[in-house]
Amino acid sequence: MAVTQRRGRRIMMTQAELDAYLAEQRTCRVATVSADGRPHISPLWFGWDGGSLWLYSLTRSRRWAQLLRDPRVAVVVDDGHEYGELRGVELAGRVAIVGEAPRTGELCPELDTPERLFAAKYFGLSTMPYDGRHAWLRLTPDTINSWDFRKLP
Question: How many Cβ atoms sit within 10 Å of the Cβ of residue 50?
Answer without folding.
Answer: 10
